[in-house]
Amino acid sequence: MRVKYVILFFYFILFFVNTANAEIENSEYYFLIEENGNTIVGITLYGSGEITIPIQEDLETLNVEGGLYIMENNTLTIAVGSTEKAVLVYQTNLLTEKSGEDWKFSADFEEEIEKNVIVAMLKETIVRQTNPSAIVESGDFIKLTWTNPKNIIVEYSFLITPLKEDRNNNLYYFIGGISALILISVFFYLLKHKKYRISVRQEQLLQTLTDNERKIVELLLENKNPVKRSFIEKRLELAKSSLATTLNNLERKKILEIDRTFSSHFIKITDWFKKM
Fold first, then answer.
1. CA 20 to 30 Å from 252, out of 42, 90, 91, 223?
2. Is the pTM of this model over 0.70?
């Protein structure tokens, strides 16, 4: 334990983070489940500070960008500094279990911060049950989405029975390889945050806004997902009263939406503005 806190002290020095005031704002979890039960996991953390998250014990290779970390007792403590964003990617087969032709995926999450969770599965998958209930989208892949779950369970099976060992091995490995490549490609596509391009009509509307209103809109456009009100306040160094007035004005102009479901309000750009 002493070694852990020594390392965290050096995190503090290296990142120049005031951990008394900093915090991880929110997170995104992506799980891509392969037919053999292996899962590619991607976690994106937004904000600055330190957080501890559970990690499966079969972890061998962990890729981390934007933060420093240590592993201890199947938990990972990561410190995020001035980057205000860290991405973790790894693989595990301990999130799934098989019984006959039926599979079950389960995962637990830290409870300190707001989070979005996405599970992507092959389109041949039959999702029998999710707990808690998920938003389900079908297409080239089946996409399951949750907001702020403490844990999730997905019970599923496949339309096509996996090929038996006595069949053509070359065909088996070819199909498996193609599936893995597609999954990995989609995974990195989900993680990639490209800079938002402002259209001519959007720019014309931005020209009519006040300085603070424009700063808030541009900050929201840079972040693909909704951000916490405290994140805007901290990043733009706006007084609470000024921020409240500016947000109300932008909401009235139908440029942004404020989700007041949770104690921490989440702000996002409206679909109307995005389609301009």
1. 223
2. no
